[in-house]
Amino acid sequence: MEPSFIKELQGIVGARHTLTDRESLAVYGYDATPELESVPGIVLLPGSSEEMAKIMALCYQAGVNLTPRGSGTNLSGGSIATSGGVVMQTSRLNRILEIDQENLTATVEPGVITSSLHKAAEALGLFYPPDPGSMNISTMGGNVAENAGGLRGLKYGVTADYVMGLKTILPGGDLLKSGGKAVKDVAGYNLSQLLISSEGTLGVFSEITVKLVPKPRTKKTMLVHFPELEQAALTVSAIIAARIIPATLEFLDKVTIRCVEEYAHVGLPLDVDAVLLIEVDGHPAEVEEDAARVREICEKHRCSFFQTAATADEALKLATARRVALSSLARLKPTTILEDATVPRSCIAPMLKFIQETAKKYNLTIGTFGHAGDGNLHPTCLTDERDHDEIRRCHQAFSEIFDMAILMGGTITGEHGVGIAKKPYLPRLVGETGLRVMRGIKGAFDPKGLLNPGKVF
Question: Could you say which of 55, 117, 190, 436 has the lowest number of CB atoms within 10 Å?
Answer without folding.
Answer: 436
